[in-house]
Amino acid sequence: MPNSKTMAKTNGVSNSQKNVQLKAITFDELWSAYPSRTIEHIDPSSKKDIFSDHCAINVSNALYQCGILMKTFSKTRCWNCPTPDPTTKKGIHAIRAEELSEYLKTRPFAGCPVPQKLSGKNFKENVEGKTGIIFFKDYWLRGNERTPTGDHIDLWNKSKLAGSGALASYLRVNFPNATESVSGLFGSDTRITSLEKATEVLFWEIK
């Protein structure tokens, strides 16, 4: 849950300080708050979900449920939000993985570390057995692109991704090229691109 607001009264003592005890978020809290089903933002005209990519939505939803209200997040938020903020009436979800990663770089909550910079080739050996938030940059093709700009952000739990499930994570992490080849047989829309193709991987270890 969020830390309550603390007010410090002014006084006449030079260089006076006030100690504030802050509760750091835990990974177990984040993992438990990660949505178990698709969070749909319904278009009133088509009656369909506006967004096809939900990774940033899912992670920001987990943060929000843990009390991280993302008040300093200045990039694009969702619209037609099914659970808007009761105070601001705005959407509570980030919709782009890279924008959410930039927000996390500012270390916006207690317990948020400086991210570890990795690559698609070496991330597995560096995050195996750890827990936290992970971001993969520019590894999958959007539409008719020639150069990949597609990103992904997720929760990492020792060896699996929250958004993929245990079996899919195992295959995706341990057999990335085979998973990409087999999934691609059914068309580009179903292809699961190898995470090893990421130009950069950021990992925020949260215990």
TrEMBL record:
<dbReference type="Pfam" id="PF14113">
    <property type="entry name" value="Tae4"/>
</dbReference>
<dbReference type="InterPro" id="IPR025562">
    <property type="entry name" value="Tae4"/>
</dbReference>
<protein>
    <recommendedName>
        <fullName>Type VI secretion system (T6SS), amidase effector protein 4</fullName>
    </recommendedName>
</protein>
